[in-house]
């Protein structure tokens, strides 16, 4: 599975914008080169001989996986992922978030092209629930950190 060809189809970014495309997807390329997700995908492909999951679904899962890893690294203030610098420490938070958002929209487009009428509703519903849970978790962390800082001051 060549995820770069899945994202870089020319359908989303014109050929004239190849430098812009490299710039936009640099955090994505970086995280692909340094995570252990490839081992998980290899295992999934092996199991897929029995599961018979559509290749397009595997590509969607892979793009979501990379995007969520980059978001998670930002939220956790991570420095390293599997021994390599995290994407946002190299490319900056804003650029990394732009890449993640782009990947989310590419995924949404791909889900809408699956030909299953309920797929986009299921994807969006699940994604919204995931974001709501993440927001609640981050709020709890901020409240806890404020509480800790008040205790340490007294």
Automatic annotation (TrEMBL):
Keywords: Magnesium, Metal-binding. One of its GO terms (biological process) is isoprenoid biosynthetic process. One of its GO terms (molecular function) is metal ion binding. Pfam families: polyprenyl_synt. InterPro entries: Isoprenoid_synthase_dom_sf, Polyprenyl_synt. The keyword Magnesium applies. This is Polyprenyl synthetase.
